[in-house]
Amino acid sequence: MKVLATYNIKGGVGKTATAVNLAYLAAAAGARVLVWDLDPQGAATFYFRIKPRVKGGGKALVRGRRDLDEVVKGTDYDNLDLVPADFSYRNLDLVLDAAPKPTRRLARVLEPVAAEYDYVILDCPPSISLASESVFEAADALLVPLIPTTLSMRTFDQLDDFLTRTRWRRPPAVLAFFSMVDARKRLHRELMAELRAARTDLLDTEIPSASDVERMGLHRAPVPAVAPRSRSAAAYRALWDEVRARL
Amino acid sequence: MKVARFVLAERDRVEQFVDELVDREHLVRDRPVSWTRVVFDTFDWRLHGHGSVLEHERAGARGQLVWRDRDTGEVLGRFELAEVPRFVWDLPPGPVTDRLAEVVEVRALLPLVTIEGTRTPLRLLDDESKTVARVVVDTATVQGGDSLPPVVEVQPVRGYERQARRLAGVLAAQVVLTPATCDLAETALRSAGFVPGSYSSKLRVQLDPHGTALEAWVTVLRTLLATMEANEAGVLDDLDSEFLHDYRVAVRRTRSVLGQARRVLPASVRDRFRVEFAWLGRETGPTRDFDVFLLEVPRFAARLPAERRPDLEPFRAFLERRQRAAHEALVEVLRSARYEAFLRDWRAFLDDPVVSPQEAPDAPRPATEVAADRIRRAYRRVVRDGRAIHDGSAPEELHELRKDAKKLRYALECYGSLFPAGEVAAVVKDLKGLQDVLGEYQDCQVQAGSLEHFAQEMLEEGTASAAVLITLGYLVEQLDEREAAARRAFEERFARFDAPEAHARMRALLRSGTRPEAA
After folding, report:
1. What's the CATH number for B4-191?
2. Is A28 on the interface with B (CB under 8 A)?
3. A31, B95: Cβ pair inside 8 Å?
4. CA of A219 to nearest chain B CA: how many angstroms apart?
5. Phi, psi at residue B352, to the nearest 5°?
6. Domain B365-514 coded CATH 1.40.20.10
7. Cβ atoms within 10 A of the Cβ of B353, count?
8. Domain B210-353 has CATH 3.60.15.30
9. pLDDT digits (tens, 9 = 90+) for A2-55
10. Angle (CA) B203 B506 B393, round 5°
11. Is A29 in the B-facing interface, judged by CB distances under 8 Å?
């Protein structure tokens, strides 16, 4: 089982769209996939038309009083399951803080389903917190969408900084890629060229800013399921191929 | 929760049944889908034995290979594929392929039966328009064969089992439905005349403990002949390497049984057929050798540093060429007049074994007694030859011991059903440890020798670059190391086989064969 986490310190960068679309593509190719919606806003849960509620609350889950296995919901797609968001995740830091070995907590909770899934994708809330540290400990790789703006680049540096300053049992691979790219904007093109020159480890795929991604909320379905021949679907497919090759 | 499966009694009532169900349960009806499914398994029914079903389904432009649990209906894996490759290693790499490979291993996936049908997919939605349960109605016909009874399945969605359970309850109460006893694929296989699980590469023979030695010997030999015949077509078509492997094992077992048939079968029969089986052993050897090497290539590659792996490609191509040539020669043998005459005469003898007591004084004796005697002899031989081996023994002596051990193993397998199963298993276990180390020793030695020989041939052909030769040299070195390790392990393994407790187990087995109550 490989654990991936879509993550960015900044919100609104196409993080949930990445989690949902990659999960769909992996499952469609035959892998068994679990998405865990850790964001109390519950966007991934909404996209899959599932009610944002965890039986017994997210706290019980994280504290180990309930097995992940019991709260998993099947999506409308083969091989693709979801652990719904729960409003109690807004207090995840407090819950973790009270738990022993808080940063190891999520990895622990995932253990019982390790044999059942090939990929677990954690869709994380934007921040750097105890919860994110727990995610970093559990994840084999962080999928970091970057909007080509100066601010977004700065938060990437912050993440990098945080990852290098902290001691990890096994640091996650950082797979960053450009998201919501508007190739018509000169600023986007320039910033991307600049960052690509500085960071050779960025993924090649760029996810375009496109209306079919925005319409995910309307259809409440992954882009490749609704518009399989769209440019966005092709971009996510390329991204998944690249991510898989890096794992 | 499992998939709940029902059979609809009347085929012409499907429409009406679906209409009523949709109305009453407020189901959403998706467009009916016409599909064609091909059910796959290996020749020796590995998927069936595993309790799973592998089907390729074509529906419109979509082709999907679906692997599922036969009992629960749970999907174990799924591939989007237009065509099914013959071997698992040609499937897209990934965890599902790895798991399937554990079941199927090197065997070819054979298309067994084609089913054509129409699926009516129905879904139960909740207030978010989320699917919380599925009902699927399939009407199907075996291609060129029988119509199958329509099947209605309730497929649960994880986390929403309550809804599926309720629907299953509703269906169970319908008089037109009866619970299905097996799934569509299995029904289709049986309807097409297959008996899932009917072939196994394990020797399955049940001897009569009250019978005579002649009856036992002939029964074993008939079973082995049946194995050869069952595999012949696959050997000729070279579907996968295991047909020839099983064929050869049957040949070797036959040779071993004939060798232990002194005084049970007439000398004239033994003499003639031992020559023929030895001939078959020889003629089938080269193809098998190349098969083994081709199967080993990925393992060789895994032991090489990544940058050296491409250098193995010319070697693989060489092996493939040689394997094809060897196989062509083998096909000629199996189509020769000599082979035909041999098969005809051997079958004729086994169908009606006429044996006079002068020629074969042991033939009318109790099977159990004679079998115990042959096992005892084979066993004593392994013990004697094994004890004679010391640090300075020549490799040939270990090879002889390996053959002795194999004969003992074959005897235990062929006549084992005359003895209590538990005691046979214990003795086989003792023997297996020794056989493993002897096998590893010889395989490494033979493979290293063959590699050197192949390298020479490739040089002469002009197909070996320096890089290829270096790579092969590297592999030979590794084989030499493994061979040395096996040689070092021998003493300890043999000591375990030769231990007083192991002897006691063998004595118990042989005694149980001569005790009247065992019969």
Report:
1. 2.40.320.10
2. yes
3. yes
4. 11
5. -145, 75
6. yes
7. 18
8. no
9. 999 999 888 888 999 999 999 999 998 888 999 999 988 899 999 999 999 888
10. 90
11. yes
